[in-house]
Hints:
Blueprint (H helix, E strand, L loop, with lengths): L4 H6 L7 E4 L3 E5 L9 E5 L14 H18 L27
Amino acid sequence: MAETIFDKIINREIPADIVYEDDQSLAFKDINPQAPVHLLIIPKVRIATINDLKDDQETLIGHLFTVARDLAREMGFDESGYRVVMNCGEQAGQTVFHIHLH
Length: 102
Ligand code: 5GP
């Protein structure tokens, strides 16, 4: 699959407001926020859409959710609530073909 803007963020080729990083994932602020806090949490490996997920990537995808949980807790809105979204495909509004949790 083709490289996306998110690879450039992972590789520090373009700037982003990065709030979390580990060996598997990266979290940064959405450039066009649709909520008071709008983060994107991505795997470092390139996976275009949910349709491209391999069975052995289940743990990796679960990891994106535990990062979301921890960031919500750290930022203090875990109890008040938050929405987690992953679009799949153009018709669903996906514009960057490197999977990401909003
Ligand atoms: P999608 O529509 O694919 O579910 O979400 C892609 C998201 O990436 C959008 O909310 C969009 O604002 C965000 N985005 C696109 N390009 C950039 C960028 O260069 N930097 C950052 N931080 N966010 C981006």
